[in-house]
Every structure is written in structure tokens, then in C-alpha cells.
Design brief:
This protein has 355 residues and is an alpha+beta fold. Strands 1, 2, 3, 4, 6, 13, 15, 16 and 17 form a nine-stranded mixed sheet that branches. Strand 16 and strand 17 form a beta hairpin.
């Protein structure tokens, strides 16, 4: 695995680092740093909006007005992230505004009842609105639009966002779907924003882009991964809360699909069931390739990651949670470019929340 700095050097060269005769490599990681003036102006205006849950569509409109005030080059780079096939699959944004005072990290995996200001939520939802439409899922954080990603004592060893003591495997954020495909209604993008780092500052978010993964695989392995020889297990939250711990598998699907130059990937964190011995061997090779090509970021307050949930997969390293009110605290959104083509999942009570 290489670090963000390593990938930035390779990207600046415009090659894969193998020498001047090497073919140009896709730039799969980028970094945006706001000026202090842009940060402060953004923070002051976001603080005026208040709790976005009071009227989410009004708040999203206000955030759009506010983020439109960013420098044009910065705004275009964020917009381009969401609208073009050849852009990086992950972007780190630095020097974002933060809440002046932060309460204790919640202990139950839910939103804080003590939080009095909503700058962090404004950052998260404002960035999400530049990429598409944030959505909620009833089986993930009870349909909330803002997910608080926090270690929970009972989930420390699980392959979920409540975990801490185990490596959270490379995965896509997927949804159980009655149509049998868990790679259709899943988010197009995730936004991850850091409110508080873990105590030791060692928790890393890794991202492996399907373009880098495909380039690292032997042709016969890639052919297997592009065949419908795998079944994805439903997300851990669905298995825990709805299926009473039982496996709930998708129809057979490929793990890598789409155009050779611009591939798409989908892996379930809660388990993939290969249907042949060859598929099992290819899955093992895939996991190693993900580790080898991944970009790694140790998120700090004032930083956010834009993650393309179709171009690549992400993971999280283990860390030690103390459950003392100062544990790692991220916020996350699920984002679709459009909610129209998953309208069959919408709940009658809320047009942004889906089954």
C-alpha cells in the first residue's frame, strides 16, 4: 500500500512511476485545500442555517447558495468529481470550517443530543448537494440523512461502521434490494467528514480505484471477476436488524463490470460468496490488489473525503476505542446523482428516505 503523498507524486508525473516510457496512469486521487478566507466565509454562512433537519430541502437550497461562493476553480473541481467519468475516484478536501464547540462523541452510534451548532452538518450536506441528492435508508441509521460513524462497544469486532478492533474490509456501501441486485440502488457517492479523530490518530480510510485494481490484475483473474460468479451478502445493519443474523444473498453478479477503461466495482463488506473455486481464488487476489493500490488518508477535523462508490471500494484500519466521549467521530452521507431511478424504494412518509 502506498500513501497519499506517493500517489500525488505519481499523479503529478502523469505516469505510473515506472519511467518516462510508461503509459499515462489515471489520476485516481486528488486534493483540494481551501484558503483560510474561504474557510471562514463558508463557516460563518453555514452557522446561520441552523439545524438542517427542521426543513431539509430548504437547508439544501441554502447550502447550494453558500457553496456557490467558493472560488470558481475549487467549485468546479468538486462539481467535476461528480459529473465526469475520467475524474479521480476519491478527493480529500482540507481546511473546511468546524463547529467551535463539539460535545462528547455519542456512545450509541446515533446523532448527538448535545450538539448545539450545525456547521459540520452544513459542510457534509453542502458538499453532498454539489454531487447529487442525499438519501436515507430505513435499514441504515434509521433513515437519517446524516450518519454518525462512531465506534460502539457491542459492534467493536463487526464489519460495520460501529466497528473499531478489526480491519473493515474493502467494500462498497450497498443496499439490500428485493430485486436481487445489491449494486443497483446503492449510493453513487459517499461524503465522509471528520469531527474528531481517534485518540492515537491511526485510523486510516483507504480507497482502491477500480482502474488501478484492474491494471494490477492478471487478465484471467480480471475475466473471472467480470463474470457473474459471486453473491453479495446484505449489509450488516440489515442482517442484524431485519434478518436476525441470517445470510441474505444477492443474485449472482460480477464484482467488476462496465467499460474496460472506466470500470465499476461492487464488494459487500459483510461477505461475498464465490460460486466456484476459481471465483474464490480470484476474490483473494482482488483483496490483495485492493491493499496494494489503495490511497490512505488519516482524517482529521476540518477534512472531508468525497468517495465515488462505483469507481472504487474503501476500507478502514483498526483502532482502539475507549468509549470515553472522545472517540473517533465521522459523519457520512449517501448521495445519488438522481433519486428518480430508485423511486420504487421511496417511503410514503419521506421522499428522501428509502426502504
Amino acid at each position: 500500500m502506498t500513501t497519499v503523498a506517493d500517489h500525488l507524486i505519481a499523479a503529478d508525473r502523469g505516469t505510473d512511476g515506472a519511467g518516462s516510457d510508461a503509459a499515462p496512469a489515471a489520476k485516481t486521487f486528488s486534493r483540494i485545500t481551501l484558503s483560510d478566507a474561504a474557510r471562514d466565509a463558508l463557516g460563518a454562512r453555514l452557522a446561520e442555517v441552523g439545524d438542517p433537519n427542521a426543513d431539509i430541502d430548504h437547508a439544501m437550497t441554502r447550502y447550494l447558495q453558500i457553496f456557490a461562493g467558493l472560488p470558481t476553480a475549487v467549485l468546479q473541481e468538486i462539481l467535476d468529481f461528480g459529473r465526469h467519468i475520467d475524474t479521480p475516484g476519491v478527493t480529500l478536501i482540507d481546511n473546511l470550517p468546524v463547529d467551535e464547540r463539539l460535545p462528547d462523541t455519542p456512545s450509541d452510534g446515533g446523532p448527538s443530543r448535545e450538539k448545539q451548532t450545525y456547521v459540520a452538518e452544513g459542510v457534509l450536506l453542502g458538499l453532498s448537494g454539489l454531487l447529487g441528492e442525499p438519501l436515507g435508508v430505513l435499514t441504515e441509521k434509521a433513515g437519517q440523512l446524516v450518519h454518525d460513524v462512531i465506534p460502539v462497544p457491542g459492534g467493536a469486532m463487526t464489519q460495520t461502521n460501529q466497528g473499531s478492533e478489526v480491519f473493515l474490509n474493502f467494500h462498497s456501501d450497498i443496499m439490500h434490494d428485493v430485486i436481487g441486485r445489491y449494486d443497483v440502488a446503492n449510493p453513487d457517492f459517499l461524503v465522509l467528514s471528520c469531527l474528531r479523530a481517534d485518540h492515537e490518530g491511526i485510523a486510516g480510510t483507504h480507497y482502491a480505484d477500480a482502474r488501478d485494481i484492474s491494471a494490477a490484475l492478471a487478465p484471467e483473474v480480471l475475466e473471472t471477476l467480470r463474470s457473474p460468479l459471486f453473491r453479495l451478502n446484505a449489509p450488516g445493519s440489515y442482517v442484524r436488524d431485519v434478518a436476525d443474523g441470517a445470510e441474505v444473498l444477492s443474485d449472482p453478479v460480477p464484482l467488476i463490470s462496465g467499460n474496460d477503461e472506466y470500470p465499476e466495482i461492487a464488494i459487500s463488506a459483510n461477505g461475498v460468496q464465490p460460486l466456484t473455486t476459481g471465483a474464490r481464488a480470484a476474490l483473494d487476489v482482488l483483496q490483495k490488489a485492493c491493499r496494494d493500490v489503495a490511497h490512505a488518508v488519516n482524517l482529521r477535523p476540518g477534512q472531508a473525503l468525497l468517495i465515488n462508490n462505483r469507481k472504487g471500494v474503501h476500507a478502514r484500519t483498526s483502532f482502539t476505542a475507549r468509549y470515553d466521549g472522545q472517540d473517533r467521530w465521522l459523519q457520512r452521507t449517501y448521495v445519488r446523482r438522481s433519486l428518480w431511478n430508485i423511486r420504487y424504494r421511496v417511503t410514503p412518509e419521506n421522499r428522501r428516505v428509502h426502504h
